[in-house]
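Handout, section 4.2: multi-component inputs.
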Amino acid sequence: MTIISDEVKKRRRNSREPSPYLFILPALLIVGFFTLYPFFYAISMSLVKYIIYEPQSIGTFVGLRNYEGIIGSTYFIEAFINTLIFTAISVTIIVGVALALALILNQRLRGTNIVKAVMLIPWAIPPAAAGLIWRFMFQSFGWINKIFVDLGIWGEPYYFLSAPRSIQVIFAVVAQMWQQLPFCILLILAVLQLIPNDIIDSSELDGATGLLRLRHVTLPYIKSALAVVAAFQAILALTTYDMVYTFAGGTYGLISYYAFAEMFQWGNFGHGAALSVILAITTLLVILIILKIIPPEKLYKYSFTSE
Amino acid sequence: MSLVNKRYSRREALSTGVKVAVGVAGAAIVGGAAYVMLGLPAATPQKVKLDFTVWNYSVETIRDNIQKFMQQYPNIEVTLYDFNWPDYPSTMVQRFTTKTSTDVCYNGEDWLAQWAEAGWVVPLEDYWDKYTTKKKFSEYVRDMVPFAKESMTYKGKIYGLPYYSDMFTFMYNEKILRDNGIEVPNSWEDVLDASLKLKEKGIRYPYILQYQATNPFDFYAVFSGAMGRGARLFDENLNPIFASEDHPFYEHLQWIVDGIHKYKIVNPDYLATHETDAAKKMGAGEGAFTVLAKYMLAAMNAPGSSPNAGNFRLALMPGKTHEAYGFAKMYNMTRMCVDRGDAAIQAAITFIEYFGANDSPVLKRWAVEKGLGFGFLSPYDDPDIAKSLIDYYGSGADKSIKEQASIAKTIPHPVWFGQWVDYSIKEAIAKAFANEITVKEAVDRMARRAKELKGG
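Output:
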């Protein structure tokens, strides 16, 4: 149905009415000041020499030399790969577990409301505290070891925090998962409850139960919501700093920590800014990929019409 | 009203302004002269404000010391800012780069070069004798423990007075050794032999290693052991010299790796072991030997702190030379303070002298109440301090500490040292300890990194 006539559209295009721009001006100013200005400032800083212990050369334009320096440095490849691994594992596990738990909670079993309320507690805990909590849990005297040793499953405590770092990343994912699951479950659960009952009923009449219904009815319906959750988790994992810092003291060498160390521990703000820009571009790429899979207009349509 | 409504010409306004200004100036001159001639009390001089930054060790004691200082010097008002110890250097970098007011700060030997090159802190010796002080700067310098003086020196200039000075020392549980007929180890081979014997007697991990890679101290807890074998990291041109298999640093790292994986005498949760955890393990009798900052010995021997309190002793670092790593943390004056002018500099110097002099009540308080080490020689002769050394560290400690201090050394800390240590503890050594790479690979990587950083 055509709601707006072509004439009206044409009139709007030719209009020189400034009011629409005035209406969005406050929002533009806020976004510009708090988002665009720091981003472009970081870009400009990444193009100059800024080493705190060489004050006489601060501000000298060096082009892309900070990027060359950082990409060729000892840490970069490992930190970049670590970040991607951490992101891939946490997104996969968090989305998978959140989906499974949301499906269980959607069964409207007795006590699910209490579970939903209790489940929110980890989400209310700051990430830095979450990292510390799990650090204590994984220590040789933490309760994980205590339970397994007391039950006789392990002869002696397992030293999680001294394991090779590739394995420790998985432990850090557990902490990340604990913190992020409530939000993801609630989001998926909300969408699950939007699936019309008549579709479920008709699928049952057609003989689609259990896994068959999950695959052919539920998943296609919540696909967009899963993409949103995955995108959100990917952004969080790529940029996470506080949780991993308190959990492992930055020893995993994620890019976010590397940028902080370059700036505030080693005094090279040019390198730190270059790393921040690389991280921002990586995050933007991930968002673009996800938006490519689920176009924004589809997300919009989905959100407002449940179609 | 007419006054409000009256319009003034520019000429009239200017004329009125000048008259008012002359009137105010005249009144001030006449009033001031009257004060002087009639002997009336002078107006109270304005307070000089100082911003002082510290890491948060015993903040209540620091606050109390500041209160006492301000009672003695009522014209100086000190505001304290305390930060978490592991985050202190990065917090200060943020503070300095954003030009947040800081006049006096704690500084460490490991950051001094960077902060000095950045122009954030100034050599105290360049200002001291130009201002009113109790003693000349050279008098303090003459009394400094050599490694403490070196720790506070950059490019030939002394930047501070010591807040405290300490060493990473070898400690043992005297009772465990006596009960098992074991002599105090003289070499690292002795430590291994003794540990293996103790392991047979049921002590699972006799050597407790602190190696929590977030703690800037952890590198020194390892390196000090290597210094006992005579290790140096760099030559006089700061070229790395430790990458060969017969170098004491390599040997010591290999000793630890073997201790963790081959002999299983070292606690495998070293990465989760902060110095306080190490002290707890020792206190619980889980270990017999460790290398920690000396002040931890005081904590371990504090009455009631553990079932083994009072049993811990300090011995010379095992190895051929028995050297250990010594260092000093210091009070620095900042460039920002200097830029504020003479009054601020005078206030900062008065404050630093009150807190950091060799006869300072603050130094004595730290030593007597907390068992902290000091960067001067003369306090060893203070009877209260000598008694506290024995009270805190155990009988004979006054002699053993002095003996270790006399041969302890510091190492050069160029601007890139922090970055190199960070890489070393978080990457190379951590991987070697976890058996992810060999010790040879670790030292090669560390040497390569040092060359890269030195080359700029």
